[in-house]
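Below is a filled-in request sheet from our internal design queue. Each sheet records the structural input a requester submitted and the sequence that came back. We keep these sheets so that new team members can see what a complete request looks like end to end.

REQUESTER: design group, bay 2
PRIORITY: normal
MODE: inverse folding
CHAIN LENGTH: 105
BACKBONE (tokenized):
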């Protein structure tokens, strides 16, 4: 089973709380992707937080909204071969907003 966690953020440095909730899961995702649709001055801080957590950091390259950020993540997942069609039943992509957290349970 493969789990890919995707956190979308926009001008919210507090997304680090959401990221920490993903990292501390009993079953940590195989990959964590952070997609930013933030202003330029925020992106470097967001990138640093993601990289310190060994997460992949992407900038939204589609419509600048939640859907665009999700599409950016999906495009990356498919383009990098993280989602294998042969075993797709065993691959899960979980999305998390920047102001939410995952409970450990």
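RETURNED SEQUENCE:
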């Amino acid at each position: 089973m493969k789990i890919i966690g995707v956190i979308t953020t926009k001008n919210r440095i507090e997304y680090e709380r959401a990221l920490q909730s993903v990292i501390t899961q009993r079953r940590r995702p195989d990959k964590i992707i952070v997609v930013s649709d933030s202003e330029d001055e925020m992106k470097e801080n967001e990138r640093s937080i993601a990289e310190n957590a060994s997460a992949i950091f992407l900038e939204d390259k589609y419509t600048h909204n939640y859907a665009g950020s999700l599409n950016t993540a999906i495009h990356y997942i498919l383009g990098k071969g993280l989602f294998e069609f042969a075993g797709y039943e065993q691959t899960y992509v979980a999305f998390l907003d920047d102001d939410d957290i995952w409970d450990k349970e």
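SHEET NOTES:
- The first strand starts at residue 2 and ends at 9.
- Residues 66-79 form the longest helix (14 residues).
FILED BY: M.R.
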